Amino acid sequence: MTETPHPLYDRHADTLTRALTAISERGYWSAYPESPSPRVYGETAAADGKAAFEAYLGHDFPLDQPGDGSTVATEVSPFGVDLGVRYPHAAPDQLVAAATAALPAWRDAGPQARVGVCLEILARLHRNIFELANAVQFTSGQAFVMAFQAGGSHALDRALEAVAYAYAEMTRHPGTAGWEKAAGKGDPLRMTKTFHVVPRGMAVVIGCNTFPTWNSYPGLFASLVTGNPVVVKPHPRAVLPLAITVRYAREVLAEAGFDPNLVLLAPEAAGEKLASTLAQHPAVKIVDFTGSTEYGDWLEANARQAQVYTEKAGLNPIVVDSTDDFAGMCRNLGFTLTLYSGQMCTTSQNILIPRDGIETDQGHKSFDEVAAGIAAAVGKLTVDPARGVELTGAIVNDGVLERLDEVTKVGEPVLESRPLEHPAFPGAVVRTPTIVRLDAGDTGTYSREWFGPISFAIATDSTAHSLEILRSTIGAKGALTAAVYSTDDAVLDAAETAAIEVGVHLSANLTGGVFVNQSAAFSDFHGSGANAAANAALTDAAYVANRFRIVQSRRHG
């Protein structure tokens, strides 16, 4: 039995083929241009997208799905913009019933039809990328260009990557097979076997405030393309980007002849704890979550009926041993710490530097000189508020401000955080990064996560000691990224061995336009699933293959 190609599969077959090649070769490829230039997207695209975004503000969001008739409005923009969007609310059982009813026809459509529909959804989102980028900007606090790239084109790339991996896994085995076994002098035994790709069941995606699309799209599309209906539960402060996503997904599903309730939005009222209720519902078989370690651990322990994929938090270290480009190292690290005010799960926190200093192309540099060089690079990027805010964005929530206040009571400041006035948004809450000097003995401080624009320059006894701290902190708390700077191949090899042992992705000697807290779809893995910071990797075969099972039937041939 050969699956009949779906028209949407044929329409997007070339994109799928290129994506399959990209995940195999691991080189550079992107399906969605990351430049918001009019030369790429057209002269009116930016204005049209902004107007579409602004049309949502202060209104009921246009989403026709099952609900209880009430609305919720919980978003507060870090830029001080009054959003006021009201979203349709639904009880958990309403969402479950609608999703469950939509599953059979979607399952029976087969992998090619599901892939075609998912790629059409991505094309529809790409067509409205400026609308999406504005929604990401004003709910997450990212500056516009970052919102366009990370929240738009890169998020779409990660979604496409998940679809490609899922298609490869769903089609790894034939749909049918003839089986024949000799049976002595009699006729051979003959069977016809059919292998069905069977989804696990209803999936829930729990979104985060900082990267509502980038972190949600891989799980959303990995579940949907493998046959599972998806309930999208946004963070209360970042609903709009995922509401827009759900709106266009439902449009495409309906146009393709499928039940739009395959994708549902689940905004929650204040104090409702909807994520926990859904995650433990017996009908929910897959949960995707990005956010705090505490809640991720809770999900892993309590959503026992579901396959749970978590990306949590960790202590991302940098080991500084030596460098042949001191200025380049400082510039690179300065950008890393400044970008989005360090509000990225991949941003480095613990910078491990021998207390006796390091060798550089500028001669020996003391510990204080190394720390000061990194601080000066941050200062240069943020000295002009108009330019600085395009890197820092705005502070996403009060918890970050509380940690910035708390950190003033520990260590010795190398660089103090300060507020910046945003020239376009007077109500924006903006803070520059702080760097605090600690000693290796201050484990009580640097062995916990300080999410936000906070990093520590930590004086160690030696590079070997720095690597010991890398091992111990990641071993205990996990990390999503690690970096090393050294001119000694033996040190680089030792750092790579340590990274392998604790399951963290390592970058060496970054001095140019590649940064430790950024990853490229189709080439870089995000998270490894090999330490406490995440139990899965974006995106590999393991991330998609357990979202469905193979069920066979056999008959005599």
Give structural notes:
The structure is a single chain. Helix 4 (45-56) packs across helix 7 (129-140) and helix 18 packs parallel to helix 19. This protein has 20 helices and 19 strands. The strands form five sheets. It has a seven-stranded mixed beta sheet. It has a five-stranded parallel beta sheet with strand order 7-6-5-8-9, sandwiched between helices. A three-stranded antiparallel beta sheet has the order 3-4-19, with no helix packed on it. With 557 residues, the chain is an alpha/beta fold. It has helices at residues 7-11, 13-25, 38-41, 45-56, 92-109, 111-127, 129-140, 144-170, 217-225, 240-255, 274-279, 293-302, 326-338, 367-382, 385-392, 398-406, 443-446, 463-477, 489-502, 541-545; strands spanning 71-72, 87-88, 176-181, 189-199, 202-206, 230-233, 263-265, 284-290, 307-311, 317-320, 350-354, 358-360, 363-365, 412-415, 434-439, 454-460, 481-485, 505-508, 548-556.
